[in-house]
Amino acid sequence: MSTDTPAAAPTADAPPADTPAADAPTADGPAAEGGGSVEKSQADGAPEAMGGSGLREPEYDVEVTLSDLQADPNNPLYSVKSFEELNLRPEIIKGLHALNFRRPSKIQERALPLLMRDPPTNMIAQSQSGTGKTAAFVLNMLSRCDMTMPVPQALVLAPSRELARQIVGVVQQMGQFVQGLNVVAAVPDPRQRNQQITGQIVVGTPGTVMDMIRRRQMNARSIKILVVDEADNMLDQQGLGDQCKRVKALLPSQIQLVLFSATFPENVTTYARQFAPRANELRLKHEDLTVEGIHQFYLDVNGEDHKYDDLVKFYGLMTISSSIIFRRDTAREIEERMTAEGHQVAHLSGGLEGSDRDRVIDRFRSGEAKVLITTNVLARGIDVQSVTMVINYDVPEKLNGDPDYETYLHRIGRTGRFGRVGVAITFVHDKSSWSKLMDITKYFNVAEQLVRLDTNDWDMVENALKLVLKNPRAGVATDKMVS
Ligand SMILES: Nc1ncnc2c1ncn2[C@@H]1O[C@H](COP(=O)(O)OP(=O)(O)OP(=O)(O)O)[C@@H](O)[C@H]1O
């Protein structure tokens, strides 16, 4: 895309103007409004307010004081309650303390009393990426399972093996002081083939779970909770939606159904309500979904042919602790080229064997690989706190070419986790990619904050990003920095 791209214009046809940065508020400016959230508590009957490794520079440490963020009522991490007040058992509280969870986040504070109420009620809950949804549903499961019984009692369905394995890890950590707890990952694994599942909590991908129940490897008779994580994705996609429905049909009829996601587009909401009837709902407007700590940029690339070169140049500018590059397809040229440039790169796509996928994600989590190149298979749920940058090498699109709002939000949500600062950079190389990105940022009400990075001025690019990443309280770049 040429440098006379309509950088600040809200539409693709609008004439070039100042960059959006000119009007962009700083982090000291207006905070993301928490007031636009909508909560519908059907159990109560009445609605309530809800509330590259680089080659030149040292690594940046991004620090964040969680207690400050948790004191701001507009912040999704805010809470007035303590875990003790949420009636959690002492051994579970001990696990939370061991994890350094001092206070619940807003979603945990709101969801837990509803989830843990007796008799159990269904729940459809939404909150921004990285705000602790996993802990909310894990704490409910830990509280409700009888650990003296070695049979599955709670089942979590997740869209990828990586996310399922991650959730297993969260259950193990939070439940480390819970006597008798056994949690099992139900993901394709030849070693598990004929093994009987005896864990009280099972976390898996829908196809494997269905197989295990059908082959009687897993006894579903005692299951009392079904959690569908990333529920909009799980219920929307024809394949997964169908599979989730079939898994549900294999479970007892009187169970607690819990759906969690950062996004619930309208077209999925109706289906979600059929899947989990009479649910308490914790919902947000799409305008309130972005996370303040994620600074959104676009790299103005001079045509498709320059994308590789610019990516490599970009990674030569500075060291990022960990970053993820999202691509539409699984081509490996970028990996090869960046490896040749001296970066510690890993590549993960759905086409790899399960054990290879495990090895790759584990290398990335441990920091052995600093750059992860992947597809939408990892767009959702993956929580690696050291990820300070996400790159959308392609603007996320649906199969029909329309902008994919939800995937954009989930991809950028791999950084800026639980109050941390992160940077999301989308490559824009022509009018079409530009206008799709504009649509997306307008949908989430962040078009004004989107900052252009000009590939004709790499010093500016470097300065803009350093400023944001060095200072956890720094605002988005101003027009002085990116002109
Ligand atoms: N109360 C808390 N105190 C401190 N850290 C927390 C708390 N709750 C969650 N976290 C941490 O916040 C991070 C994000 O949590 P989690 O992965 O559950 O987010 P999420 O809302 O499920 O995000 P996504 O929508 O991307 O799936 C995790 O590293 C988790 O350990």
UniProtKB/TrEMBL annotation:
Pfam families assigned to the protein according to its UniProt record, in alphabetical order: DEAD (PF00270), Helicase_C (PF00271)
Question: What EC number(s) does the entry state?
Answer: 3.6.4.13
SUPFAM superfamilies for this protein: P-loop containing nucleoside triphosphate hydrolases (SSF52540)
Q: Locate the Helicase ATP-binding domain: which residues?
A: 114-282
Residue ranges for motif Q motif? 81-109
- Report whether Protein transport shows up as a keyword of the record: yes
Q: How does it sit in the membrane?
A: Peripheral membrane protein
Quaternary structure?
Associates with the nuclear pore complex.
Q: What is this protein called?
A: RNA helicase
